[in-house]
Structures are given as structure tokens and as C-alpha cells.
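Justification of computing resources. Each target in the renewal requires a structure prediction run like the one illustrated here; the chain below, 324 residues long, is used simply to show the kind of job we budget for.
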Amino acid sequence: MTMRAAMPDSPGAGSGDSWAVGLATYRRPAGLLRVIDHVARAARFAGIDPLVIVVDNDGTDPAVAQAAADQARRLGLRLDFSVEQRPGIAAARNAIFARAQQAGVRFMAMIDDDEWPAEGWLRALATVQAESQAHVVGGPVLPVFPATKAGLQRIARFWSVQPQQLAGRTFVFCTCNFLIDLDAIRDHPRPLFDDRFGLSGGGDTIFFRSLFNAGHPMAWAPDAVVEEEVPPQRASVAWMRMRRFRIGNHAVNWEMIDYGRLRPLLKTLALTLRLPLYPLLNREPEARISGWLFELDKVMGRWNAHRGVLHMEYARDAAGNRHA
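Resulting C-alpha cells:
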């Protein structure tokens, strides 16, 4: 299952540092093979020989593991493939970090199985990490819509991942495109991802907030571009309204972890009072009506969280199908 390509030292670390690329997969075999192929290209371009850590959060189809092994062998990649049968993205992410730690990895990049990186992805992450000495480096994710939904491109930023700030500093908030120095977080409390958010989503933001609050420096690599396939069922304003509801719902939960109940409630009240004036703020000049609807849905999601409702985006049916 393992083949090693001869490559020069990484641009972002000394020759003694080891690298990995981690990803969780769930019933997306074609996407998994695509991302492995693009990771191989990015690794060659960067001069990095990463261990590719794949955790399958399903495991019902042994052909997935075999196809991934064949793909890695053909591309000269080292592959660590395992199955995490506990349902939920938190369990899969924790398994990825555990496998990386067992392998003695220092730097690990992560990506999703419905994405693919640009050729310069790993080099850009490594370069920014070396220059900034940040413990976490994030990069942008750009949506790729179906040809029949090209009109959504004008509001594509709602589907994208762009730089954010928290308390005036760079804040990396999701696992879909980032690099982490595992040595720097060796003493961070485990488990890294809370199982309570395994089927709801949002656990990655809670993890990154905990790193941020612990003082781990973060940086942004604008050239570390990843593209994400937007399937037809997600390529609609209606789906994005549900996503914004979920974002608001989960935001209250992670704010309550950091601040207790009162501060998030006051924020929700302020956002509610702002709603009538929101279109006048010109925050979404390309889509005033859609932007207002998305803000309304976010606020509604927040109020549901205050009532104790946690939106389960990744819930599965009896057959194990996920409807995210």
C-alpha cells in the first residue's frame, strides 16, 4: 500500500520534519480519488513527501480502501487508510489526528473529500508557516458550481471560505483547508473535536477557537487555494438559507462555551434589532435581498440555539445516508 517518492526538503520545514495530509471521507469514492491525485501534484510541486491519512467514516465498501491504495501506489504517495466506525465528523477528525501523532508527523494539512487543491497549495501553506511561525495556517476555499447554476457565481462568496478575524487577529475556523504544527499543540486537551458536534457540524470552529484562546498564533495563506465541488442539491439560495440557519445556530453554542449564556443572548438581540436596517448597511451590494434573507436565517438559527435546539446537518438515516 505504501510507496515513497524521492523529494527534496520541504520549503516550510527542516529536513527532519515529517508531513501529512489528512482527510475524512464518507461515501464519496470518486471525490476521494480526485483529491488524492491533486494532493500528489501539490506534493511534487512543493518538494514534500507527505503521508496521506484517510479516515473512512463509513467502511461498508472495502473497494474504497483498495481504490485509494491503488491510486496512492500509482502516484508514489504513502497512504495510511483506516476506518472509523463511530458515526460523526468529530470521531473521524480525532482519528486523523491520532494517526498523525502515531506516525510522528509534525506538519499536517487537511482537506475535504469534495475538494481539490491547486498545485501550489502545500507550498503556499508551508511558506507562510515558515515566514510567520504560526501554529495554524488557513487558506481560501472557492466553490465550483454546476454549469446550470452559473448564475450563483455573483454571490459565490457565501459558499466560499475567506479570511476572518477574531478580536482583531487572524482566525482560522474550519478544517477544509489548513495546516497545523502538531508539535505546538501536543499539550492541548484531548479529544480535540467534541463528539457532541459530530453530527451537527461546527465542532471544527470550536476546536480552532480553543486554540485561538490558548494563544496559538494563526496566519492566512491567500495562495493556498482549494476548490470545492458544489453539487446540484447545494447550488441554490434555499440550501444556503438552511446553511446560514445552521451557522447562526452553531455560533451560539460555541459562544456559550467561551462566554456563558448572557453575552451570546445580548448579541442575538442586537442582531435582531439590526435586521430592519440591514439592507441599508450595504454589506452584500451584489445581493441585497439574498444577503438580507441569509442574515434573517442566521438570526433565526441563533434564537433556536437559545431555546436549546442544535441543528444536525450531518444526521444519517437508517441506511446510513447523510443529507448534508
